[in-house]
Design goal:
heterotrimer; A alpha/beta (865); B alpha+beta (347); C alpha+beta (189); A: alpha/beta; Dimethylsulfoxide Reductase, domain 2; Barwin-like endoglucanases; six-stranded mixed beta sheet; three-stranded parallel beta sheet; 24 helices; 23% helix; 13% strand; B: 347 residues; alpha+beta; Alpha-Beta Plaits; 2 domains; 10 helices; globular
Chain lengths: 865, 347, 189
């Protein structure tokens, strides 16, 4: 956090000053470790084993915050008899289907439910990254659940969880992660001590945590611990994601993603969502409890915002205009399709995949096989010049005279040359005022897309083709101003907020939205940001003049709420858990919820409210159910549906690992997304042979001095000079083993690429003892590329493409490699080197490790069971 | 008349420099125990003061690629990797299967292959200081005698580790030799008690450079003039905080009235001692030291040499008073004559 | 300037007659130092902004003189950052005023070995042509079973996490209306 989010780290330092104990878990000792009270070196890719160990420690010692756990989580909920755990199946859960490597989740359900209300099959969910929809709400479950509040029933979630994590002992944590037991126990003791009525603990991660083939389950394990310790919905608690781009949260809320529409509405699927009604029902799940019951309203408001007057009840609000998904249309599938010549044109909008995405060579070869490419950026980045300066020129894989891609570079306006809002990592929208005009031809994306849309609509104005109706009927009338005819960002924000169609009054809350076409709103979760016609995101009442919550600085979705599920900061009766941790509570005099923040609960629903039988929607949520967007109002320790790789997180090895999974026969995530494309060869891992050809673990992350793929830092002199060259960090032990010399060259080799870097030998890296072996780890920054003031080879070139099944994020924080002293070979010699490595690792052709390895009985712990 | 301590000993420098009823003496307290090495200070300084580039070389001195305070680096964050306990933290590498810390030989190789930092007198290639900083070994800054106790030899296995970071800056000495030797009046004492080069006066003679006991002030190659931290004199004049202190995310760099800072610093040292960091100590805070105390002082977690600071700096013009007695009168007479000569030529 | 004022402005005179006999302070102030002020004080305007790098969302104040950004520093009012910035945030002025910034449209023809200049309007029209052509060439009305698809898989887009919410909204809206599905951003990288 000190390394990548230094200004946020000031609050950790404040907490430290007040006595907080800071633990830092990282493969290398960073600037964060330097200030932490305890540093735990970990083998990259084993965090679930560590966190699973913490879960076991909590449950074995009954250190959970019992009142909270019983009342607010699904710990007491009883599961179906059909469920089988990984304990019984060598690391698989019940329902695994070998033919499509996905789970039939019906056996995971709660007792008493006839079946899970999941309309789409799990393979389709994986292909369409359906897990992302849950950013705003839980997966569906039906009806009332059976509970045992003594937590003794053998099939209650608490007991199932306890069994699942029983093998995650301190010895096992040490064996898998390389973390000494003493260190691990120190973490467990401190974490569990900060739990209960008076105390909380916070879990902070940076989003490299998500970049694993089990990325979603990493976060879930953290969430399980925080729920068990009563650290969710309370001040000083939570699972805090430190995101790495100014508006990466905003670009998920109002998504530039293939599978989502604004407000986490799913993009329609050709088979599952043929009509508006089927689409809406798949979101709201008729009969389900919780706020998501109003999905039709949110959907209709979006369609109405898109197609305005053309959207009517008679034509299902133009639902038919929407393009339909048929499967995976994600960025990696797109790149492979580019290589195969299926994609004509590509827009890059402030993103630099030639450096920033996994498997850089695939990215560049894909871009070299387009008809046209539009790059909009501040600087001439690698993704604009791959045809001229990319590493494939040297190997002859790209020849400029033979590369047909037509490239348009359009200069972009910077953050001070346009107005608009960013949504930062805590869902807070902050408006930026425009300071100056953009230079020359530089323009905002708002300008580019507004005018591109205008030109296209003009071209089609006489078209009679049905396909063009969606463009011609589009509500595309935004006022413009200034010499460049810049569209009004506030007018767009107003549309996002929503308004009454008659009269145009801005809506103040999504509860004002109607499903009859009388209101329109582009992103229901953002409704209220333009309340009373005032840009609430532009509020800047000084922090010093406000409470710690600072509700009048910017605006947070939903409804300016700063801590989600904050009903949980009060006990079931609505009283604060303690004076020290007071935040939101029930005021019996006024008969309403009140507190320092906007209560995340129906304002006048008393703690004593119990839903009538068979109630659905919001009415189905009891007065002591804080998790109002979950189907059962509970925090989920166990996910009966919605998480594609299992109801409970399980340690699987990274797709590329030098180690056989010590916990189960199943080596890696069996449901991961695999791309079997010739360019995507993967290094072998146990139980396959030849994994020793790539004996080392490498991981990549950020330096304080640089930003992402370097497009905003390698081009900026005062930053470039602070970290002027690509390097690789190695321990003194590895340096001796491989003959690496400080500040000399080394090159790293994987089945995809070889890159070179300067060597930094440092005590900050340590070898680890893993399952009786010494494992060496290398660390690289991923900021470097071949353009800019400072250049270097790109760490992301080393990675192959393997994805998490829930959200289709790539595993780009861990892989295996070899490292050798000296510079890498050039030209054809480089290609020969890679061929040689692939030959020695047993495969000259494309190689994909097996999905399922439960038939190989050689995994240590598993043998004992 | 000049104060008896005008050139040596405790002194409030602004009144001594002719300011009637000046504001309180302002300065920096840099608390290295909370520094996260982010280098925001280096960048904020360059942005505000338009300081040119200091070169694009990988130095291999941990994460320090700036190397030293130079004409083109007015803040410099030093990084020191040590196989030692931080005092308050659990040993970082206990029970790990690792060998001894990096050998001085390994680091020396790195330092030898390092390239020049770009501006003079940046860290020269092959500096023993670079090797020592990386190694924590017996070779300290080329000054073997200065090796702190409990370090160096005999470490069989590294179990502990700490990473020290310190943002260095011009000390704005009470007795500033650079100012005292400046023949043009370019260097002067501000009403805030700080020491500033006036670029419209400096003629690039370079006397100040050899006079500085800390090796801070430096000549810029292209224009020959001397440059260093101004403690953002322009910002102070309008009541603003210097750029580096304002940016500092963790309040490692604190700006304020020197008296307040000294109190705060003493309290911080006491807290750290209580927390089990007995090595915490102040540097440059003492008005009785060889420079009359610094306007920019530090809380360090190790000996000053470890950070590249001289252990006992003494103002190089300490002996000026004796010289002054002999030469002062003659100089004044000469100056007056010169003034009259100029007046005579006034049109 | 009168003789008296001219003499009084002369450092040595001030040294001899004033309170600074050693000429190290008040008497040594140069004309530059006497007229010195912070450029934030003389700015024409100040815009309240937000750091463009990571998602902490630190407040920035952007000072402008004669249409140029002259300083960007932390906004002390922000309850998130309290006026502080990291090195990247602190480098924001260098980012937006960098001489390396491209400010004109550049165009690379198929099979060409070099860039050429292109007028912005021409570029916009060429891009519109190509979008429509790619869409026509790869349009899919219905799937094999006759269910609507209404889409093109011939167009891709990547990026958005460094952009504004309003921009992402228009991008998604236009592409959706166009039938372009393959819209992605850094959230999945």
């Amino acid at each position: 956090m000190a390394e990548a989010h230094p200004v946020g780290f000031q609050w950790v330092m404040e907490a430290k000053r007040r006595g907080a104990k800071v633990f830092h878990v990282d493969p290398r000792f960073t600037r964060t470790s330097a200030l932490a009270d305890s540093y735990l070196p970990i083998r990259a890719g084993t965090d679930i084993a560590l966190l699973g160990g913490v879960v076991r420690y909590i449950l074995e010692n009954e250190l959970d915050f019992r009142e909270y756990v019983v009342a607010y989580t699904n710990a007491a909920t009883i599961l179906s008899e059909d469920f089988r755990d990984t304990e019984d199946m060598h690391g698989l859960f019940s329902g695994f289907q070998e033919d499509n490597a996905s789970y039939d989740q019906s056996s995971w359900r709660y007792e008493g439910e006839s079946q899970n209300a999941t309309p789409r099959d799990t393979e389709t969910q994986r292909e369409t990254a359906a897990g992302l929809e849950h950013e705003s709400h839980g997966a569906p479950v039906n009806g009332q659940t059976e509970r045992d509040e003594t937590l003794q029933h053998p099939r209650c979630v608490y007991q199932v969880l306890k069994r699942h994590y029983a093998r995650y002992t301190p010895e096992m944590v040490e064996r898998v992660c390389g973390i000494p037991q003493e260190k691990f126990l120190e973490l467990c003791e401190a974490w569990t001590a900060n739990s209960g009525r008076d105390r909380t603990g916070m879990l902070v991660y940076s989003v490299g945590w998500t970049q694993h083939s089990v990325g979603v389950q990493y976060i879930r394990t953290g969430a399980i611990i925080q729920l068990l310790l009563g650290n969710v919905g309370r001040p000083g608690g939570g699972v805090m994601a430190l995101r790495g781009h100014a508006s990466i949260q905003g670009s998920t809320d109002i998504p530039t993603l293939f599978n989502l529409l604004p407000g986490y509405l799913p993009m329609p699927h050709h088979a599952d969502h043929p009509t508006l009604d089927t689409w809406v029902d798949s979101i709201r799940h008729p009969g389900q409890k919780g706020f998501w019951g109003n999905a039709r309203t949110y959907g209709v408001n979006l369609l109405k915002a898109y197609w305005g007057d053309a959207a009517t009840a008679e034509n299902d609000y133009c639902y038919g205009y929407m393009p339909r998904m048929t499967g995976d249309h994600g960025t990696y599938q797109q790149v492979l399709n580019m290589i195969d010549g299926k994609v004509k044109g590509y827009f890059l909008l402030g993103q630099n995949p030639a450096v920033g995405s996994a498997h850089g060579r695939a990215q560049r070869l894909g871009m070299a096989n387009l008809d046209w490419l539009v790059v909009r950026d501040l600087f001439m980045i690698e993704s604009a010049t791959f045809w001229q300066n990319g590493p494939e020129i040297e190997t002859g894989e790209i020849v400029p005279e033979e590369c047909r891609t037509e490239v348009f570079f359009l200069p972009a306006a910077s953050h001070v040359e346009k107005e608009g809002s960013f949504t930062q990592t805590q869902r807070l929208l902050q408006w930026r005022e425009k300071a100056v005009e953009p230079p020359g031809d530089a323009r905002s994306e708002l300008w580019f897309f507004y005018h591109l849309g205008r030109i296209i609509r003009e071209r089609l104005s006489t078209s009679t083709q049905p396909r063009d109706r969606a463009l011609l009927d589009l509500n595309w009338n935004y006022p413009t101003h200034g010499p460049n005819a810049e569209p009004s960002a506030e007018a767009v924000l107003y549309e996002i907020n929503g308004y009454e169609v008659a009269g145009g009054r801005p809506l103040s809350s999504f509860t004002e939205m109607k499903d009859d076409g009388s209101t329109a709103g582009g992103c229901w979760i953002y409704t209220g940001v333009y309340e009373d016609g005032v840009n609430q995101a532009a509020r800047r009442k000084p922090g010093a003049e406000q409470s710690l919550v600072a509700p009048e600085w910017g605006w947070a979705w939903p409804a300016n709420r700063r801590i989600l599920y904050n009903r949980a900061s009060a006990d079931p009766d609505g009283r604060p858990w303690s004076e020290r941790k007071k935040y939101v509570w029930w005021d019996p005099e006024k008969a309403e919820w009140t507190g320092y923040d906007v209560p995340d609960f129906e304002k006048t629903k008393p703690p004593t409210y119990r839903p009538p039988p068979n109630s659905s929607g919001v009415a189905g949520i009891a007065g002591d159910d804080p998790f109002i967007l979950q189907g059962d109002g509970k925090g989920w320790l166990y996910a009966p549906t919605g998480v594609l790789d299992g109801p409970m997180p399980t340690h699987y090895e990274p797709v590329e690992s030098p180690v056989r999974n010590p916990l189960y026969r199943q080596q890696a995530n069996p449901t991961r997304k695999v791309y079997t494309h010739p360019i995507n060869t993967l290094n072998p891992s146990p139980p396959e042979e030849h994994s020793q050809v790539f004996p080392y673990v490498f991981t990549v992350s950020r330096l304080t001095e640089h930003h992402t793929a370097g497009g905003m830092s390698r081009m900026v002199r005062p930053l470039a000079e602070l970290q002027p060259e690509m390097f690789v960090e190695v321990s003194p032990e590895l340096a001796v083993e491989r003959g690496l010399t400080h500040l000399d060259w080394a090159h790293l080799v994987t089945a995809r690429a070889a890159i070179e870097a300067k060597v930094l030998v440092t005590d900050r890296l340590t070898p680890l003892r893993v399952d009786g072996r010494i494992i060496h780890q290398l660390w690289l920054p991923y900021h470097f590329g071949f353009e800019g003031l400072v250049t270097g080879e790109s760490a992301n070139d080393l990675f192959g493409i393997s994805l998490d099944p829930n959200v289709l994020i790539q595993e780009s924080k861990v892989g295996t490699c070899d490292v050798r002293p000296g510079r890498r070979p050039r030209g054809q010699d480089l290609l020969n080197l890679l061929v040689d490595y692939r030959r020695r690792s047993g495969d000259l052709g494309p190689h994909y490790p097996p999905q399922v390895t439960t038939d190989v009985a050689d995994s240590g712990r598993d043998r004992e069971v | 008349m000049p104060h008896v301590n005008s050139l040596y000993g405790p002194l409030d420098p602004a009144p001594d420099a002719g300011y009637v009823d000046p504001p309180p003496r302002m300065g920096f307290f840099t608390d290295t125990s909370v520094c996260i090495g982010c280098k925001a200070c280096e960048v904020a300084c360059k942005e505000w003061n338009d300081v040119p580039t200091s070169g694009l070389d990988l130095l291999g001195m941990s994460y320090d690629n700036t190397g030293a305070l130079t004409a083109n680096s007015w803040r410099h964050v030093a990084f020191v990797e040590q196989p030692r306990s931080a005092g308050w933290a659990t040993p970082a590498f206990e029970h790990e299967p690792d060998g001894p810390p990096i050998s001085p030989e390994t680091a020396a190789v790195g330092a030898r292959t390092g390239t020049d930092t770009g501006t003079d007198p940046g860290l020269p290639p092959g500096s023993p200081a670079a090797a020592a900083r990386m190694s924590g070994g017996p070779e300290f800054l080329g000054m073997p005698g200065a090796q702190p106790p409990g370090r160096g030899t005999g470490v069989e296995q590294r179990t502990d580790f700490r990473w020290l970071m310190m943002s260095d800056v011009c000390k704005h000495c009470t007795h500033a030799a650079c100012l005292d030797v400046c023949p043009t009046g370019s260097l002067f004492r501000t009403e805030f008690g700080t020491v500033v080069v006036q670029e419209d006066i400096c003629n690039g003679c370079g006397y100040c450079i050899s006079a500085c006991p800390y090796g801070v002030i430096d000549q810029r190659k292209d224009d020959g003039r001397a440059w260093k931290c101004t403690l953002c004199y322009d910002r102070l004049g309008v009541g603003m905080t210097p750029a580096c202190a304002k940016a500092c995310p963790t309040e490692s760099i604190q700006y304020g009235a020197l008296d307040d800072l000294r109190e705060r610093a003493a309290a911080r040292v006491a807290t750290l001692h209580e927390q089990g960091v007995p090595d915490a100590r102040l540097y440059g805070h003492d008005p009785n030291d060889g420079v009359g105390g610094d306007g920019a002082f530090f809380l360090l977690l190790d000996e000053p040499e470890v950070y590249g600071l001289p252990p006992d700096p003494i103002v190089t013009t300490r002996d000026l008073p004796a010289m002054w007695k002999r030469a002062g009168l003659a100089a004044l007479a000469m100056a007056a004559a010169t003034a009259l000569a100029f007046l005579g030529r006034q049109p | 300037m009168g003789v008296r004022r001219w003499v009084e402005s002369w450092p040595l005179y001030r040294q001899l007659t004033g309170t600074d006999p050693l000429g190290r302070g008040a008497a040594a102030k140069s004309a530059g130092s006497l007229s010195l002020t912070a450029r934030t004080e003389t700015a024409d305007s100040m815009a309240r902004s937000v750091c463009p790098y990571c998602a902490v969302g630190c407040g920035q104040r952007v000072f402008v003189k004669d249409g140029q950004v002259t300083q960007i520093e932390g906004d002390p009012d922000s309850p998130i950052s309290r006026g502080r910035l990291c090195p990247k945030g602190a480098a924001s002025k260098s980012l937006v005023t960098s001489p390396l910034r491209q400010t004109t449209v550049r165009y690379r023809r198929p099979y060409s070995t070099q860039w050429e200049d292109l007028d912005l309007d021409t570029a916009m029209n060429m891009i519109a042509d190509r979008v429509l052509a790619a869409r026509d060439e790869t349009w899919e009305d219905v799937d094999a079973q006759g269910r609507p698809l209404n889409r093109t898989l011939g167009i891709s887009s990547l990026g958005g996490a460094t952009l504004d919410n309003e921009e992402n909204y228009l991008i998604k809206k236009l592409f959706t209306a166009m039938g372009a599905l393959q819209i992605e951003n850094q959230a999945r990288i």
